[in-house]
Amino acid sequence: MIDLSNVSKLFTSYLLIGFILFNRCSTRSISIETKRETDESPIVDLLKIGAVSYLSTSPFDSYAETNVDWNSFLGTWNEIKRIDNSFQSGLTEVSATYSLQGDGTIRVTNQGLSASGETRLDGVALIPNPPVGKLKVSFFFPFFFGDYLILRIDRTGYRTALIGGPDPNFLWVFSREKTIPQQVETEYIEYAKTIGYDTNRLLSY
């Protein structure tokens, strides 16, 4: 079961790391240690990018569902439709599995079929604000985070969901099954269209 107090602590810790990195970068001065700092800068810069992406927001944040039961959200979801993107290009039969880890983070396992066979990609998700249906997901932890917003979800059984990204080009329709009721799919797509997602590019793969 997800301990929301631990989730909040993780968020606070990452926020603190971001603040320290920003402070360090902004106050860095020329000294006898310049060479050592220069040598460290690639990692510092990557962590800085991670902090920026973790703290980023988008206009679509306001459409995220609230009071999400994260324990009910965990488990495997099957992709019904998506707006194709560079990191999923060519994949079919895609699924995403969310599982709780010992440190309070959520493990994300994306699987699918490509021309060369089965593919798998593991990542880490954090919940920046537990009452809000927004995940910060990183497949290069902790150097970059992407936003995944729960725009719609079946509250009675957590069987279907509409997931969006931070811009109109990232959108998924999920179901616990390999299919989804047509009425639900149509409702999700119409809603996504009204709030600004490019649903004309939403296809099954």
Could you please describe the fold and organization of this structure?
This is Lipocalin. InterPro entries: Calycin, Lipocalin_bac, Lipocalin_Blc-like_dom, Lipocln_cytosolic_FA-bd_dom. Pfam families: Lipocalin_2. Residues 68-202 form the Lipocalin/cytosolic fatty-acid binding domain. Residues 25-38 have low confidence and may be disordered. 31% of the residues lie in helices and 30% in strands. The chain has helices at residues 4-27, 34-55, 70-73, 182-194; strands at residues 75-83, 92-100, 106-114, 117-126, 134-138, 146-153, 160-164, 171-175, 202-203. It is an alpha+beta fold.
Shape: globular
Give the low-confidence spans.
25-38
Number of DSSP helical runs: 4
SSE order in H/E notation? Answer: HHHEEEEEEEEHE
Biggest beta-sheet profile: 8 strands, antiparallel, barrel
Give the class from helix and strand content and strand pairing: alpha+beta
Radius of gyration: 19 Å
Strand order of the largest sheet: 1-2-3-4-5-6-7-8
Cα distance, first to last residue?
A: 33 Å
Secondary structure: helix percent: 25-40%
**Which whole number gives the mean pLDDT?**
84
What is the count of β-strands? 9
Sheet-strand content, in percent, reads: 25-35%
InterPro entries: Calycin, Lipocalin_bac, Lipocalin_Blc-like_dom, Lipocln_cytosolic_FA-bd_dom
Organism: Leptospira yanagawae
Protein name: Lipocalin
Pfam family, one: Lipocalin_2
Provide a short characterization of the protein structure.
This protein is 31% helix and 30% strand. It contains 4 helices and 9 strands, in the order H-H-H-E-E-E-E-E-E-E-E-H-E.
